Amino acid sequence: EAENRINVIDDRVRPAVDIVSLYPRDMNIYGDTGNVLVVAKRLWLYGYQPVVHYVNQGDAWPEHVDIILGGGGQDSGQKKIQDDLMARAPQLRQMADEGVPMLVICGLYQLFGNFFRTIDGDEIPGIGIFDAETLGKTARLIGNLVASSDYGTLVGYENHSGQTFLHGQTKALGRVTSGEGNNAEDETEGAQKNNVIGTYMHGSVLPKNPKLADFLVMKAVEHRYGSFTNLADSSMQAELEKLDECARQASQVAQH
Ligand code: GLN
């Protein structure tokens, strides 16, 4: 028995990594919660124990937080979460400075900038992690989105009326090669500051972009344990490779 288990992770001693799924009720369109599933699955396959905390407005903040994932939402969803997001802003900004990885999509990405002025003229304040502003426009930017980035070619699906403009030193996540991205003008897509990534890519984005997923996963483990070690045994490694091959094929299809 002991010999059979020699290359198998003991599930009782998997190191825990705590994931916050932020606003899964009101900010989760086009399947963005799939990003949480991908991070949890990849952590598991690297030998870690993912612990997912679903945090909606008013919910307690967990004791440990190693990574934060938040999805897109309609303007109405953004209004529902804005007060709670403002209340959590100092903590989120501090975590961003400390290198906690975060992934925010579309509607939540917009609120990680300075503000979103909707087409109705309402101004929803943002938490200013990105020096960026978002302006509602009449034309919606809809369709497949492809961008080149430090994480390879990223593919996703965009659908937004808000157009985001980056200021100052704010670094884009990628350069658009197909679709629109942040806005209809400058061919930038998304933003990155420290380990915080904002993007317009739904899809959800992480199943098709495993390099981006691994960046977030590895930063989460580093945040918790100081460095990332791949604890996968051969069967887990084989499953990771299959997932990556599926992603590679799906990404190629999305680019044609
Ligand atoms: N409400 C925002 C917009 O349309 C975000 C939409 C989204 O998250 N897809 O710009």
Automatic annotation (TrEMBL):
Record-annotated active site: C106 (nucleophile), H202
The protein's superkingdom reads Bacteria
Q: Which InterPro entries match?
A: Class_I_gatase-like, CobQ_GATase1, GATase_3, Lipid_II_synth_GatD
GO BP terms in the entry: cell wall organization; cobalamin biosynthetic process; peptidoglycan biosynthetic process; regulation of cell shape
What chemistry does it catalyse, as a reaction equation? L-glutamine + H2O = L-glutamate + NH4(+); beta-D-GlcNAc-(1->4)-Mur2Ac(oyl-L-Ala-gamma-D-Glu-L-Lys-D-Ala-D-Ala)-di-trans,octa-cis-undecaprenyl diphosphate + L-glutamine + ATP + H2O = beta-D-GlcNAc-(1->4)-Mur2Ac(oyl-L-Ala-D-isoglutaminyl-L-Lys-D-Ala-D-Ala)-di-trans,octa-cis-undecaprenyl diphosphate + L-glutamate + ADP + phosphate + H(+)
Which keywords are on file for this protein? Cell shape, Cell wall biogenesis/degradation, Glutamine amidotransferase, Hydrolase, Ligase, Peptidoglycan synthesis, Transferase
**Self-association state and partner proteins as the record states:** Forms a heterodimer with MurT.
Q: What does this protein do?
A: The lipid II isoglutaminyl synthase complex catalyzes the formation of alpha-D-isoglutamine in the cell wall lipid II stem peptide. The GatD subunit catalyzes the hydrolysis of glutamine to glutamate and ammonia. The resulting ammonia molecule is channeled to the active site of MurT.
Protein's name in the database: Lipid II isoglutaminyl synthase (glutamine-hydrolyzing) subunit GatD
